[in-house]
Amino acid sequence: MVMRGMIALLLALTATVEAQKQPPHIIFILADDLGWNDVSFHGSGQIPTPNIDALAYDGIILNNYYVSPICTPTRSAILTGRHPIHTGQQVDTILGSRPYGVPLNETLMPQYLKKCGYATHIVGKWHLGFFAREYTPLFRGFDSHYGYWLGHQDYYDHTAQGGNGYWGYDMRRNMSVDRSASNKYTTDLFTEEAVTVINSHDKSKPLFLYLAHLATHSANSYSPLQAPQKYLQKVQHIKHKQRRLFGGMAVGLDESVGQVVQALKANNMLDSSIIVFSTDNGGPASGFDMNYANNAPLRGVKDTLWEGGVRGVGFIWSRLLRKTRRVSQQMMHITDWLPTLYHAAGGDTGELVAPDGISMWPALSGGGASPRNEILHNIDDVRHIAALRRGDWKIRIGHTYAGHWDGWYELPEATVRAPDSAFVTPLTRILGDPPRPHDWESVVISCGKKPDNASVNCRPTVAPCLFNIRDDPCEYNNMAAARPDVVSALLGRLAMYNATQVKPANKPIDPKSNPKFYDYVWTWWKTLDASGREHYVLNDL
């Protein structure tokens, strides 16, 4: 009996040692079009996000964190660790009817993580090209995919408008069309799938789960904002119809986060997990893109280079981080996730191909200074826009939409806090009741009184504008005339980046992509031969 007990103890110790050697599980949750003012941990209690808040408070809130201004560039940056100007994704997004994607010579995060033994799964939105099947997730390093290939879909019928009036169904399980999803709410479908992936995961391997939600992106133009009553009941205090619908979509997103964390806990995976939560770009506020996200008090909206377009909602949570429950002012960019997570997984970041990102793992874990001091927001020579931040200074050139979305967009009604009952979260049983970080007040951006000339003192199509983002995060005061030396230095940095950018990969709409030729389903319409040359699937169209 003694011998048997010793053997059992040795086996248990061996299992513990092996578990310690195993890389951490990585859960990357990407929200779509979530604005700065759309989570309650940023100080607004209008939309209750208690599950997101609990993780943020217990982890590290990223308060100086930047994303790209629109969907495809951010997603390519996450998965390649390279800036969109270096992958040809710097202009616009990939419409379903355009025949291009992230180049096949780019190595993506799941391909790198497989070297460390990971099982890799994507649930949700792809939006990195599908005109040929070689561009789709299962050919880019993922073991499975449940979700859609375009940039959006209807939350219930799962169809998508994809440019030039084309319209078709877009929900896949791996490479097969999933018709069983019809009339089921997209957010719930993705939550259920993510939980299934976790429950069925082989615990002898580390898991990489990329959960890229549709929420809170607009659906199709005929019904852009959609949420079921079970989520709307938590935001009945919001009287503005569109903002209330948006709030319901955000509540569904928050519920999803809570269920994923509970599944990790139930499977004894939580304590060895890294959870990243990020938006893909700033929020489309006040009706932009038929949406009612909000970025207050920041300036601008999605698809602008103002802070409201590029300053991202984000946090990282893990028991493996040494210094948590804090607000990080460490400068971080969306391209940093690949080297950061590959570092945490035990990978050699020297293996990454021409990364623009920097591993933030040591700085985040230990609370030291960020290794990053500069962020290129974008250079888009088609629309003649550019912006860059170096230290506290930000320069921007040109504007989108003729400047019509260059303002500050408050909530459409006076803020009324959601009832306390809406902030109850089951994660309290798992995380305890994490208090707000002692420095939580620093997460709330305060800009002071807006000067009378704030809307006119920057004319970026006439001359570059300069802002001190540390002192003026709301971009009220153009300092270009006062600091021509800084303008000159930052223009030099932009010129340096401009010399390295590749030609945008964009291609015009291809009529042969029209889903009407494929039973009104969005699918690949080209094949690649052994030499990489493209051929149409249907040659008689």
Automatic annotation (TrEMBL):
SUPFAM superfamilies: Alkaline phosphatase-like. Residues 1-19 form the signal peptide. It comes from the Eukaryota. CDD domains: 4-S. Coiled coil: none annotated. PROSITE patterns: SULFATASE_1, SULFATASE_2. Its cofactor is Ca(2+). InterPro entries: Alkaline_phosphatase_core_sf, ARSB, Sulfatase_CS, Sulfatase_N. Residues 24-346 form the Sulfatase N-terminal domain. Keywords: Calcium, Glycoprotein, Hydrolase, Metal-binding, Signal. The keyword Glycoprotein applies. It holds the Pfam family Sulfatase. Belongs to the sulfatase family. PANTHER family: ARYLSULFATASE, RE14504P. This is Arylsulfatase B-like isoform X2. It comes from Priapulus caudatus (Priapulid worm). The lineage of its organism: Eukaryota, Metazoa, Ecdysozoa, Scalidophora, Priapulida.
